[in-house]
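Appendix B. One record, verbatim.
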Amino acid sequence: MVTRDKFGLFNLSNSLVFSLYALVCVFPLYYILVLTLSDNQWAASGVLVLYPKGFHLQNYVNVLRFEGILPAMFVSVLKTVVGTACTLLGTSFLAYLFTKKGMFLRKALYRFVIISMYFNAGLIPWYINMRNLQLTNNFLGYIVPYIVMPFYLILMKTYMESIPPALEESASIDGAGTLQVFFRIIFPLSRPILATVAVFESVNQWNNLKDNLFLMTRSRLHTLQYILYNYMSEVDALAARMRSQAGAGLGSSAISLTPMAVRMTVAMLVVLPILFVYPVLQRHFAKGIMLGAMKG
């Protein structure tokens, strides 16, 4: 009875601590959202508001009018979707091959891939390599370097080794080849770990600024993060320009753009789209990360 009471007290304390931690993590994002929807004078004054005051959406309308925002958003969404899909396919297939004991130089190649997770040549050799591969000013520069990711490889390989070998053996007896076994048996059964990796990689692809910063000079290949990064550095001039362009129709101080309103709105535009990934894949996430992290 005493043990059960202590266990219940531990669960209660654990829940309270993590609830408080979640609140600390979520509140800044919520606060920024409230400020972008409120009278812009509240954002400029720095007063704490817990709900929108003077609700309006004009901040988002004005920021989306910035030159290049919509094409850059399309590039970001496209590279996130295509890049995540290619990473899932390429890394999972290589992980499956590494589970085969008959693979030539299996252990040596696996260790060669994994060691790259701890050591890299640095920024300049990376850029030279990308240039030699003709991945500068090329959309494939966003995709090719991430087709195989060592950390994801470890998770997927460990998960696939937990799948009963009898399933593959029965399929092989029926005449299925390596690709058929992978796509019809292993890939569908690996859905939890694939969902986990999809969350990680989609966030990585969406937030990645380095590729655009060093590899892309053509404006049609710029991502949302790069465009907004540039806008954040000249936020005062942008706010003044948008106020002058708005004219009398947006003359109210409540909705005219201020530097703080631009910063808050830009931050929300970068964060909000990727948040939709989590509700879709959440039910697979915990199971996938646990099964992919331990063997047996």
